[in-house]
C-alpha cells in the first residue's frame, strides 16, 4: 500500500503542468512533457546497467509489476489533452486536474477504504469512484463554472470506473470533450 501511495503522490505531482500551461503556454507545457518523457526514458536505460542517484530509488518505488512504461501513457494523456484543448486553457487544465487528482485520490481511497466493488468492474470500488468524482469536481471548479465542472467530473469518474488499468489517456480526453461540449453548446 505504501508503494501505491508514493506512486499516486508522484502521479498527482504532474499538477505542475497546469501551472506551466497557465503562466507560459500550452506549447511550452507540451514541450516540457516531451522533454520529461525523453529524460525519464534515458534514465530508465541507464538504470538497467547501473543505479542513478535518487532516480533509481524513485523508479523502483513507483514501478508496478508488468508496467514498465506507464509514465509514457501518463504524459501522452496530458500532451493529447493540452493539444486538443489548447483553444481553451481552462478546459485543458480542468481535464488534467480531473485526471491527476481524481485518479490519484480514487486509487488511494479505493484501495484503503473500498470494500464494495462496482457491479460492472470488480477491480474498482464504490469508495474509489465516489472519491474520484468528489476530488475531480473540486479540482475542475478551480478552472470552470459548476455545470461544465460537474459534467467533466461525472464523465471522468465513469471513464475511470470502466477503464482498464491504463486509463491515463481516456480520462483527461473524455472529460475535456464533455466539458467543451457543455461550454460551447450551452
TrEMBL record:
The chain crosses the membrane at residues 15-44, 70-85, 91-110, 131-163, 169-185. Keywords: Membrane, Nucleotidyltransferase, Transferase, Transmembrane, Transmembrane helix. This is Phosphatidate cytidylyltransferase. InterPro entries: Dgk1-like. It comes from Methanobacterium veterum. One of its GO terms (molecular function) is nucleotidyltransferase activity.
